[in-house]
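Last lecture ended with a question: if I hand you only a sequence, what can you say about the shape of the protein? Today we answer it with a concrete record. The protein is Fructose-1,6-bisphosphatase class 1. Below, first the input exactly as provided, then the predicted structure, then a couple of comments.
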Amino acid sequence: MEYKTLGQFIIEKQAEFPFAKGELSRLLRDIGIAAKVVNREVNKAGLAEILGSFGQVNVQGEEQQKLDVLADREFISALQRGGECCYIASEEHEEGLDFSSSEGSSEGKYIVCIDPLDGSSNIDVNISIGTIFSIYRRKSSSGRLSEQDILQQGINQVAAGYILYGSSTMLVYTTGHGVNGFTLDPSIGEFCLSHPTMRIPENGNTYSINQGNFVNFPPAIKEYVKRCQEENLPTGRPYSLRYIGSLVADLHRTMLKGGIFMYPESVRHRNGKLRLMYECNPMAFILEQAGGKASTGKDRILEIHPKELHQRTPLVIGSTLMVDMVEKLYADMDGVV
Ligand code: P6P
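The predicted structure:
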């Protein structure tokens, strides 16, 4: 069987970056290695005694599942060992990990924002979970990092990707030249190119939202959901609601099949629930690179100017024509309560 591994692909694509010295390639390979270790632990979670909470609470106030902690440690140590990374912002840590001490201990020029194990509340019910990462190049050339290096707009990402630990484990990433998907072949322990040049259909028949929050949704989202429930598609078929409650799984399906995912602002989540730096920006970069769209309902996600590391944002993402419709409703209903 002819296959191309992630490592071969990265080296092949590096040639497209004339001035690349291989640092980003090494960084992506480091992430791929950590993903294989986390995948091994996720797959045996049901067998070994690593299910259940770690008894600590993370910065989000969420009970830390043991796999959360393990994944966080694994990715951080892989990135630190690789030496290409000068700063890591992780969902599991209030403060970022800064390796750019003024003594210049780190020559790394990349900043990584990561959600080591998103959707971890699904671990003990065996639902797919994921890792999401976002990579920036530092703006300053050396010395201690400043806030301008760390809180960059999503349009400055040099790479972003996710790992989906599901019925099969996939790594999907972009460096701004399209989106490619790799499936882990356990028989050789390698991620192999399985979904080259991924594209999202410009329309779809699936909407993905936590309908349980309906009463708290803004008017534009309520109107959109109502139309999905009451109207049929141009094909005459009804819309389908699909919601797993695991961002990577919901967005992977959306990218493959078309559709729209929404986690809007609400009475309960004034700025939405999802995090800008390590959930929404990377997924927005990937979906845009696959021909989709990602906004707050009003503004493009990738153009948000971050103010803090763990800030939240509303998210409306998926097939372009469906996101356009939601944005039109926000514009038409602005001010409606
Ligand atoms: P809710 C998982 O906890 C997560 O962060 C995302 O993966 C997911 O999309 C969202 O929260 C689900 O949130 O409020 O619908 O349970």
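Comments.
1. The radius of gyration is 20 Å.
2. The first helix runs from residue 6 to 14.
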